[in-house]
Amino acid sequence: PDRVPITFDAEKEVYDKLFNHFSIHTKEQLWDKLRVDTWFVGPQPRIKPKRIASDITEDIWGVRWRTASYGSGSYTDVIYNPLKGEITLKDIENYPWPPLEVNDFSNIPSQCEQQKNRALIGHAGLGLFFRASFVRGMDDLLMDFMLEPERAKAILNKIEPFIFYQIKEYMRVAGKLIDIFYLADDFCMQTAPLIPPHIFKEFFYPYLKQVAEIVHENNCKFLFHCCGSVRPLLPILIEAGIDILEPIQTRAKGMEVEGLKKDFGEKLCFYGSIDLQEVLVKGDKETVKREVIKNIEILGKGGGSVSYTHLRAH
Fold it and tell me: Which of 178, 200, 259, 296 has the largest CB neighbor count within 10 A?
């Protein structure tokens, strides 16, 4: 491209400050001010979360979330996993899994039409690992992979059709209108993947490969989000068909931009890399500027980089 593409995301309080700074009122106006090249397009949910208490909601999976304040904004935490603890295969079979038709995709073409001068990124919900960890509980799910693989497979097999339905419906309605399809699954921590690569390949490679095939059939690129130390999984992700990796958490083990570009730059586009843990939340303007320029020069050499900023107020 003629320049490194720019994408953007932020917490609500940052949007509010930017709207005030530029004396504007809409996200589209802000995108024009910041020269942002991307635009996310998603469906409308047909089913709203149940309100359990003033700060607690229950989603369509039976997972309960608590909203907590950090002063200038808020975030949500999972506080209840409906299939946590000792369960049987029969318990999994009899659980009231949500219906497939939970999203309304009819508004997507009009959204695309309004932003056709930007790179359109479609999304239809979270990925398989995310959903399974919320329903089962992260600790129990990780132990299932190692000690009770049939139980883990049974849970994944119940969730997988839901995810494929959303992706296929999205592509049926708007696959020819978008440029990129986005899916998020955080498989990693700061120092390593949460599960060994051979377990990852057994349980998740077939699912990701199928997602990639659906996306590529519609002439779109596959953008995959995975935080943390994802480097040990990159050969598997590339083999599965992922084109673009987000967010490139450079402080995680093995995620130095020089090595990533050298070893995987011919196979992956790097979407991000601006340090979200220290530089953006604690650095001054010059520190941020140096980080952006350095990473653009390294990851953007010969193409294959999208400069990404996800901001919180500080």
Answer: 178
pLDDT at 2: 80
Query: Are 26 and 49 a contacting pair, CB within 8 Å?
Result: no
pLDDT in tens, 60-96: 999 999 999 988 889 999 999 999 999 999 999 999 9
Helix axes of 149-174 and 128-136: crossing angle, nearest 10 degrees: 130
- Where are the strands (E) in 177-304, listed by range? 180-184, 221-225, 244-246, 269-271
Q: What element of type H or E holds 104?
A: strand 103-104
Looking at the DSSP bridge assignments, the partners of residue 65 are 57, 78
Q: What distance, in Å, lies between the first and last C-alpha atoms of the chain?
A: 33
Please say whether the dihedral angle defined by the alpha carbons of residues 196, 201, 207 and 212, taken in this order, is positive or negative: positive
Residues 251, 278 contacting (CB under 8 angstroms): yes
pLDDT at residue 249 above 90?
A: yes
Cα(268)–Cα(230) distance, integer angstroms: 13
Report the 10 Å Cβ neighbour count for 276.
20
* Amino acid code (one letter) for 267: K
Model confidence pLDDT, tens digit, residues 215-237: 999 999 999 999 999 999 999 99
Provide the b/e sequence for 134-150 (b: ≥16 CB within 10 Å).
bbbbeebbbebbeeeee
- Does residue 272 contact residue 296 with C-beta atoms inside 8 Å? no
Asked if residue 218 lies in contact with residue 176, where contact means CB atoms within 8 angstroms, the answer is yes
Exposure of 199 in the CB half-sphere (CA atoms within 13 A):
18
CA distances from 301 to 2, 266, 269, 293 (A): 12, 11, 11, 12
**Average predicted confidence (pLDDT) for the chain:** 94
